[in-house]
Amino acid sequence: MLKATGGEATAVALAAPPAEGAGGAFAHPGLLHTRTDLERMAAKVKAGAAPYTAGFARLTANRHAQMGWRANPQATVYRGGGSPQNYAILYNDIHAAYQNALRYHVSGEKAHADTAVAVLNAWSAKLTSIGGSADRFLAAGLYGYQFANAAELVRDHADFDLAGAKKVLLNVFSPLSESFLSDHNGAVITNYWPNWDLTAMACVLATGIFCDDRARVERVVEYFKSGAGLGAVRHAIPVVHDDGLAEWLEAGRDQGHTLLGVGLMGTVCEMAWNQGIDLYGYDDSRFLKGAQYVAKWSLGGGVPYTANTRRKGAIGGWSGSETASGVASASPAMSRPVWAMIANHYTKRRGLSATYLTRIAAKAAPEGGGGDYGPNSGGYDQLGFGTLAYTRDRSADPSAAPTPAAPEGAGAGARTRADGSPDPAETAETTGTSASAPGSGKGLAATGSEEVIGWSAAAGVTAVAGGLLLLRRRDRGRGPEQEGTRS
């Protein structure tokens, strides 16, 4: 068996994602958290197990996680333009709904579920549109995927308006995100950095799963693999280097937006995984290599960057270009709750060694959520609480051999046990013990929101037979050429 240290090649056995939902519908709950995940959190906290207890304490201390939070729904939400600039009301309420719902599943206190339901019902009954500048697409994408995740946690509550939640996702949030993926607000395809696509992808995927709409899920899976925009994995992570790290395109912009992109891509991969679709492992685990790159850079390590010139502007209108010639500065003090989910997937579910992910996840723990990372919108871009939600024991069956791809469509790339049953690595966990905006008249794209011992030992990576993945250092050059990305 080969085992990676830093960026070296590695061969390990892979656990399979859970099977897709039966009968054409998707598994519920099945966005960022499955029922197994929720039961694991509750059992670990009840047993006083670390680090779950620290993660739960972070949740209970957050002002959004308190029962009795009162919603302030709006008919129209504006971001980046229009009046009033009221999008903060929406994201604060969504985070309150999510945090109360998550707290209910861990503690069993029904009043928290009731609070989440009241908040979500109020918004689905009143919200009819999202407006503003180009930032309206960010609002739809970010708050759409977050609304769906909060709603997924209470979809079986007797008082929850499931039909209303589906209506607001299908009629308000998802259409804007779908439009953005289709025509990018009338801009050339490279006008918008990767995180713009990724917000839209997260929203459409979450909507598709929540509403059992396979066409939407298929669209996001295909876009992730071969989309024309910069959010597709080979465009967001265009270069794989000889050391096994792969540069993140937006690292030439700034650290904050890079962390946003990594968190969003992880969100897309996790939601897909929970429906039996493996995007985490797609293209020789390209996302792992990109996340390792960003983790090393964010820890203060040196990383290479390939100069990138992208075209900007409107189709048939003004045009220009922008060059990112080197990696931006990064501060080890900057923290966002994006790492626990990604690190636990690769090191615990799949038994891979990921040194930089391990280090940065440990440094960020225990992860908080909205309200714990400053008052501005950037602190609410991720739902968070990864230490509680995604810490897991090493897979009980890392050698489970996946079958070939599932049926054509959303299952493309999906892997299940040979008999179609969920991977026992999942079911065993419950009982385990241990850009600046262009100038005047050009307002297409506002920027939006303001080598150590680690889990490689804890993951217990061992040589096994069958189901091996070799993280080859291949495709060292850029991904498929896209218009305007090179000078």
Q: Numbering strands along the chain, what is their spatial order in the largest sheet?
A: 1-8
In one word, what is the shape? globular
Number of strands: 8
Sequence stretches where pLDDT stays below 50 over 5 or more residues = 1-14, 399-443, 445-487
Largest sheet: 2 strands, antiparallel
Termini separation: 42 Å
User: Which class best fits the helix and strand makeup?
Assistant: mainly alpha
Order of helices and strands: EHHEHHEHHHHHEEHHEEHHHHHE
Can you give the helix content as a percent range? 40-55%
User: Approximately what portion of the residues adopt beta-strand conformation?
Assistant: 5-15%
Task: Write down the Rg.
Answer: 21 Å
Topology:
Elements: E1 11-13, H1 35-46, H2 52-61, E2 76-79, H3 87-107, H4 110-126, E3 129-132, H5 135-152, H6 162-183, H7 194-210, H8 214-226, H9 233-236, E4 239-240, E5 246-247, H10 255-273, H11 282-298, E6 308-313, E7 319-324, H12 339-349, H13 355-364, H14 386-390, H15 424-427, H16 455-458, E8 468-470
Helix pairs in contact: 1-3, 3-4, 3-5, 4-6, 5-6, 5-7, 6-7, 7-8, 7-10, 10-11, 10-12, 11-13, 12-13
